[in-house]
Amino acid sequence: MGTLSTVADSVAGDAGARRMHERATFEHFVADVRARVDARLAWWLGARVAEARARGTDIAAVADAVRQLVLRGGKRMRAALLAAAYEGCKGQGGAEAVAPAGAALELLQAYLLAHDDWMDGDDVRRGGPSVPAMMRACFGKQEGTVPATGRGQNLIDAASVLAGDLAAAWALQSILELTLAPARVVLAVRELGRVEEDVVHGQVLDVCARAADAYDVEAAYALKTASYTVRCPIIMGARLAGADDAQVVALTAFAEPLGIAFQLRDDVLGTFGDAHAMGKPLGSDLRKGKRTALVVEAMRNPRARELLAGVLGRVEATDDEIAAAVAGIQESGARARVEERIATLVCESRTALDRTHLTPSGLVLLGQAVVVLTERDR
Amino acid sequence: MGTLSTVADSVAGDAGARRMHERATFEHFVADVRARVDARLAWWLGARVAEARARGTDIAAVADAVRQLVLRGGKRMRAALLAAAYEGCKGQGGAEAVAPAGAALELLQAYLLAHDDWMDGDDVRRGGPSVPAMMRACFGKQEGTVPATGRGQNLIDAASVLAGDLAAAWALQSILELTLAPARVVLAVRELGRVEEDVVHGQVLDVCARAADAYDVEAAYALKTASYTVRCPIIMGARLAGADDAQVVALTAFAEPLGIAFQLRDDVLGTFGDAHAMGKPLGSDLRKGKRTALVVEAMRNPRARELLAGVLGRVEATDDEIAAAVAGIQESGARARVEERIATLVCESRTALDRTHLTPSGLVLLGQAVVVLTERDR
Fold it and tell me: Which chain A residues touch B210 with a CB distance below 8 Å?
């Protein structure tokens, strides 16, 4: 027994040490990608804003709002997933070779955030003003002097949408600065075109869902979040490394459940997590009427449904009402069911990962990505 | 004298016959391109809308609005310019080889029109409902049930912007279906990324100009219209044919003045032309407060300035007030000055065309394009 126990401890100790090593490897990799992508974005966006300034101060204001949003934020996790898949598929030249694509993913996100925050009326993003809030600060003074056609949009709405449009154009420009084989670049840009369509589809589902009751929340997550957060980065990285279609299919089977699990974790943290760490007040999704997975699950319970009815989509809901609704979600068992669903998706994703033919370092990096994306606390 | 006169008549007759022949060649070419691009758009958009429908009826509604707008309209002049430049630079396979790029230009325009019409509050486009008007017809009934956050946008605004975003994604997808050499495709898609940025810059100038007085109208036209109407199609076509940088520079010198002349002709027709042929009521630009080249020119004249002040940006301006303002523009000499400017730009463009190294048929086609784009009556 004593001997067996020691062996077991030793095995456990080895496994623990291995996990710590893998975690450190991943963190080092992510930090390296972030440094490269951040450096690239800083000079690249500086050049774009300078060009914009030469064309006019209003243009510069719109361009600079995109620059600020992009540089303010982010763990650059999408760029890291792209670089990890690239490395795992034997891509040459390391993270630097795919930095223009990583930067493109950040610009793609800026485009989506600009339009999203405008649609949702969100003023805060990444701990600073959202794009619409920046546009209000720039153009708010002029608003009163815009000819009132009685039908057209005001300058702030137009500029917010145009800022997103500009970020989308920049994402395309950035990815086309890749110096890899053109045939691979074309396949990677196809992923960009595909994900842009998916995200619009998902956003339509999301926006319309707030007016509807029946709603396939995972279908919307797959399109609106998982697509550009996990699937697109990984498939882009694989395509840029010259992965064949079989490998792309295998990686898609890995990426899709992982992306949904990531968003479900986001839901749980947004409702039960630390508001400060999440960077947005708890209950903000409820007040906005968002049909998160937790809400959809909890609505099946009459008591929770009643509590939620009082807060969903009501900005004026009190903190006490929010707290009661959150407790109702917990007691309905919705939280436990979502946690269970996350575990199932993670299992699917890990099984699919084993069926890919990645390099050992690629397997370690994407295996760690599963942990980081689904077990995070912010 | 009699003999000389006959020779002159004969020369003039030959020149006339040549012009008629060139015109017929051009019209035949444009009709061929239009048939190919229309056929492609019809099946391609049908497939996209079917995919959208499988994801939900709301998604299908947004996708179908884009499809309707694209199929409803247009002379496909941009696709024809692209194919003419391709042929002129010795591209192989004719118009069919570049049809996915021609279709992409149409989708790009749908994206721009959707966002433009939403910003301007325009309900009519190409003789039918604009994208925002279609979205109002679809989602108007639901609007009252959207949770009123007091800050977010309503479903109609969101769906109008999302329809434009979808068309942009489709433009990218379409151009990536080209089966030409990937290195050429990459260069062509770069033009797409560049023109998307230019158009946003131009739109910012345009939207902000309505609140401002000083305004470089040609700079805005170069970015907002000429860029995607003339320069981008021609450079894309050249790049797809493998044209070198010198040829691209020469073609840019041809395309840029032509694009501005095209927009100036549009201004003249929009103010003095046949409302029915133009497809929009005369005075609509004035009522919307648009600073067209004519308006900017006329504002230098105190009398015209006074008349314009009474109608610019005033939807409620009467037809008599509009007629007086239009007469004021004419009398100020603004119309004559704009016509003179068109003639100068056309001359610049023709001179530049002579310095390109196009095939004889390319020279005929682009030479005719100058006539069609700047001497049109609708």
Answer: 146-147
